[in-house]
């Protein structure tokens, strides 16, 4: 079905299920219980899950398949955001032209930048992409202020032309999809639970599913095979008469367009674009999401994006009072120590946790969560098998990169 | 003419910092083959050694002076730094005044320890891993160290002044026969430039004229053969890592009077230093130094108002533009050896 094999289809359907029922799944605790702070089922956060999921899926097509580590991908997200806001300012607050423009403009930029950066590989490629992203960031803050609005960020205003829109009105119209306002939604109270269904979320989620589907098709296509060949041995590829450059550039542009789509969706749900989206830490974050989930795997980036955004949300909101409540069972002296140590990691210190997580994953689990899961499941599977299997004489096929 | 000389001078101090950091990066890359994304944070750690020393010296206790009153008529509270109480007022004052140079004494052992711990504890395990993994793990370490600095010293820049002797500016214009006050250059920047040259010279002399340095150079050229001769090259490389960390730390200590240190200063310098290393030629020590000064000077030329009027925003991007052009036209960098990391 859908041109997917059985295994991929099951994976895809699981993701569809998770995304569609996210408002329920992410709200497991009743509203008035103490655990309600660990709920994640509100629109803003759910939108971030899927938008960063798209970003990471796209990044994975470049990094996971070809092994080229770009440290400047956030630039495309930022460029996409600016393009999106300008469409909403000039044409209409309907988000369709904004999203199309985001993808196209980010694609054009990634074509140019990718063409230059891909002249080199390895660390040089990483540094070149980083240099371009920093350049974009610096320009957005200084000279390009007429286009990017510099520090204050680009936003809609009442006297924008909006030539496709019927004029008048005393307030800025809300971003919508043919009349369906992005921030609209409805709440459903069920016992102690309140579930929020937001139109913006479902719109982003739909696009994320499309993006995910496209990425599965790319992974399983001959083109995806070529990208894996780029990663494993470029020289051998050259000897067989294949030029790796066009394939790598195509992967770069595709992942740039994914980033642009993510940027466009960001402005679709909140029409504002700032240069800080292009800062190199943002590029580092998407690298982390991909690595954490598992680079080169299908589901990894989505998992990684969800986990990081969830923990960011939880950790950065915790404060001293919460910690005191958490460690209440300890004796007084110990409680003080535990609270002050934990305080380093929460609130503003969330980045410390992020950095540590990053290091631990790279050191102990280079394959990310997906590999971790595979290891655990292998552990259980091995116990069931008879011990007559001699690995020396019956070598197991090494797991495929994309599985 | 005077404007040109002024820009060259202005470029020197930033160029010195770039050169020192790039030198350390190149040492690490040339010996261990590791790309250290945490090197900029080592620079910041050095700077915060100076902040710590200043903070230590200005730690004071409060006494109430009954003989004087403040403007509200209450007895005046007097803050006395401990150093003044212990070493006498003049000696204590001198210590406080000279806290930046004194911080060097703290920075050398601290940076050596940090360097050794980093290499033995973390980077050792990454020799055989791909470059991407090295970049990622040191990037993570950089975030962690940066956050630790932020935890202890806060998010705001902390000014650490230079000793009083070096306050004020030197009038180069008079010396070179221009009108007075056309080329003013702060004394501390001269000190910084001289200090950087001294450190660079020391590193080169160490590598060139000592047996240890000779072995290290041999190891950089052909690690395996040196190992076959029965020399423990790994241990020497670890020491070189510590030296690279010390160089970055010293660059940071002495930089504090020029720009007040901030917890994220390291990352800004890191990105630029990588660009410097790439322009100079990966693995080439003279290349790193040359490119450091060159880019520092180019950057300061691009910040001239006449240039900015001509091409707006050029001062923000000039270094990256230079790097992109160099990488595309001469991939091995200005002084890079043929075949070293060319692809």
Overview features:
heterodimer, A: 403 residues, mainly alpha, ABC transporter involved in vitamin B12 uptake, BtuC, two-stranded antiparallel ribbon, two-stranded antiparallel sheet, 6 strands, globular, B: 343 residues, 4 strands
Can you tell me about this structure?
The complex is a heterodimer of chains A (403) and B (343). Chain A is mostly helical. In chain A, 63% of the residues lie in helices and 5% in strands. Chain A is built from 17 helices and six strands. Chain A has helices at residues 6-20, 22-25, 43-66, 74-90, 95-117, 122-141, 145-148, 199-220, 222-232, 234-239, 244-269, 280-293, 300-317, 320-326, 332-343, 350-364, 368-384; strands spanning 154-155, 176-177, 180-181, 185-190, 193-198, 272-273. Chain A has a two-stranded antiparallel ribbon. A two-stranded antiparallel ribbon of chain A has the order 2-3. A two-stranded antiparallel sheet of chain A has the order 4-5. In chain A, a hairpin with a 2-residue loop joins β2 (176-177) and β3. In chain B, strands 1-2 form a two-stranded antiparallel ribbon. The mean pLDDT of chain B is 84. Chain B has one domain (2-59, 102-329): ABC transporter involved in vitamin B12 uptake, BtuC. With 343 residues, chain B is mainly alpha-helical. In chain B, a hairpin with a 5-residue loop joins β1 (60-69) and β2 (75-81). Chain B has 15 helices and four strands. Chain B is globular and about 75 Å long. At the A-B interface, α6, α12 and α16 of A face α6, α12 and α15 of B.
Percent of sequence in beta strands of chain A = under 5%
Percent in strands of chain B: 5-15%
Helix-and-strand structural type of chain A: mainly alpha
DSSP summary, beta strand count of chain A: 6
The profile of the biggest β sheet of chain A is: 2 strands, antiparallel
The helix content of chain B is 55-70%
Count every helix of chain A, treating DSSP H or I runs of 4 or more residues as helices. Answer: 17
Helix content of chain A: 55-70%
Instruction: Give the class of chain B from helix and strand content and strand pairing.
Output: mainly alpha
Oligomer: heterodimer
Mean pLDDT of chain A: 85
Segments of chain A where pLDDT lies below 50 for 5+ residues?
none
Name the helix and strand elements of chain A from N-terminus to C-terminus, one letter apiece.
Answer: HHHHHHHEEEEEHHHHEHHHHHH
Q: Label the overall shape of chain B.
A: globular
Distance between the first and last residues' Cα of chain B: 41 Å
> Which series of helices and strands of chain B comes N to C?
HHEEHHHHEHEHHHHHHHH
CATH architecture of chain A: Orthogonal Bundle
Summarize the main sheet of chain B: 2 strands, antiparallel
Overall, the morphology of chain A is: globular
């Amino acid at each position: 079905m859908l041109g997917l094999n059985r295994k991929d289809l099951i994976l895809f359907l699981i993701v569809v299920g998770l995304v569609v029922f996210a408002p329920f799944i992410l709200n497991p605790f009743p509203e008035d219980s103490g655990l309600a702070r660990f709920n994640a089922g509100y629109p803003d956060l759910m939108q971030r899950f899927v938008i960063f999921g798209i970003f990471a899926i796209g990044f994975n097509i470049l990094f996971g398949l070809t092994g080229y580590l770009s440290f400047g991908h956030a630039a495309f997200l930022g460029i996409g955001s600016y393009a999106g806001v300008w469409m909403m300012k000039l044409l209409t607050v309907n988000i369709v032209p904004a999203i199309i423009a985001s993808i196209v403009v980010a694609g054009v930029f990634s074509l140019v930048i990718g063409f230059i950066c891909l002249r080199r590989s390895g660390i040089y490629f990483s540094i070149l992409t980083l240099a371009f992203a920093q350049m974009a960031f610096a320009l957005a803050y200084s000279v390009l202020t007429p286009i990017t609005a510099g520090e204050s960020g680009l936003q809609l205003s009442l006297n924008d032309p909006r030539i496709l829109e019927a004029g008048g009105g005393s307030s800025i119209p809300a971003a919508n999809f043919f009349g369906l306002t992005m921030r609209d939604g409805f709440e459903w109270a069920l016992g102690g639970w309140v579930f929020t269904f937001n139109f913006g979320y479902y719109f982003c989620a739909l696009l994320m599913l499309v993006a995910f589907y496209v990425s599965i098709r790319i992974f399983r296509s001959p083109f995806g095979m070529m990208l894996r060949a780029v990663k494993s041995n470029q020289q051998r590829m050259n000897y067989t008469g294949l030029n790796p450059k066009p394939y790598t550039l195509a992967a770069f542009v595709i992942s740039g367009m994914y980033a642009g789509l993510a940027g466009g969706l960001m402005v679709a749900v909140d029409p504002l674009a700032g240069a800080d989206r292009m800062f190199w830490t943002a590029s580092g974050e998407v690298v982390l999401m991909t690595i954490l989930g598992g680079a080169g795997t299908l589901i990894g980036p989505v998992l990684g994006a969800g986990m990081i955004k969830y923990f960011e949300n939880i950790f950065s909101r915790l404060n001293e009072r919460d910690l005191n409540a958490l460690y209440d069972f300890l004796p007084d002296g110990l409680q003080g120590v535990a609270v002050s140590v934990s305080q380093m990691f929460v609130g503003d210190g969330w980045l410390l946790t992020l950095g540590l997580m990053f290091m631990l994953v790279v050191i102990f689990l280079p394959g990310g969560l997906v590999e971790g899961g595979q290891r655990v499941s292998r552990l259980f599977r091995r116990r069931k098998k008879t011990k007559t299997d001699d690995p020396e004489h019956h070598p197991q096929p090494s797991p495929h990169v994309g599985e | 003419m005077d404007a040109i000389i002024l820009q060259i001078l202005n470029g020197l101090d930033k160029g010195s910092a770039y050169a020192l950091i790039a030198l350390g990066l190149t040492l690490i890359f040339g010996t261990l083959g590791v790309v250290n994304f945490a090197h900029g944070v080592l620079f910041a750690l050095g700077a915060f050694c100076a902040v710590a020393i200043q903070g230590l010296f200005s730690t004071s206790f409060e006494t109430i002076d009954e003989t004087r009153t403040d403007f509200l008529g209450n007895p005046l509270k007097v803050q006395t730094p401990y150093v003044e109480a212990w070493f006498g007022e003049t000696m204590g004052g001198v210590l406080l005044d000279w806290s930046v140079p004194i911080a060097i004494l703290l920075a050398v052992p601290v940076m050596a320890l940090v360097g050794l711990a980093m290499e033995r504890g973390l980077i050792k395990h990454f020799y055989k891993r791909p470059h991407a993994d090295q970049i990622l793990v040191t990037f993570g370490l950089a975030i962690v160290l940066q956050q630790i600095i932020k935890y202890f010293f806060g998010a705001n820049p902390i000014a650490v002044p230079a000793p009083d002797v070096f306050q004020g500016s030197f009038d180069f214009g008079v010396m070179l026969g221009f009108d007075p006050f056309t080329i003013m250059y702060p004394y501390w920047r001269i000190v910084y430039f001289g200090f950087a040259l001294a450190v660079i010279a020391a590193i080169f002399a160490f590598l060139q004229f000592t047996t240890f340095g000779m072995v290290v150079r041999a190891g950089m050229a052909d690690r395996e053969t040196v190992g076959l001769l029965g020399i423990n090259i790994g241990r020497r490389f670890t020491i070189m890592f510590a030296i690279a960390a010390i160089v970055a730390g010293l660059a940071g200590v002495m930089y504090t009077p020029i720009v007040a240190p901030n917890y994220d200063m390291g990352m800004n310098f890191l990105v630029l230093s990588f660009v410097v290393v790439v322009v100079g030629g990966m693995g080439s020590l003279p290349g790193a130094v040359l490119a450091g000064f060159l880019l520092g000077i180019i950057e300061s030329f691009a910040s001239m108002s006449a240039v900015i009027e001509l091409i707006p925003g050029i001062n923000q991007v000039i270094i990256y533009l230079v790097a992109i052009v160099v990488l595309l036209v001469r991939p091995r960098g200005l002084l890079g050896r043929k075949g070293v990391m060319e692809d």
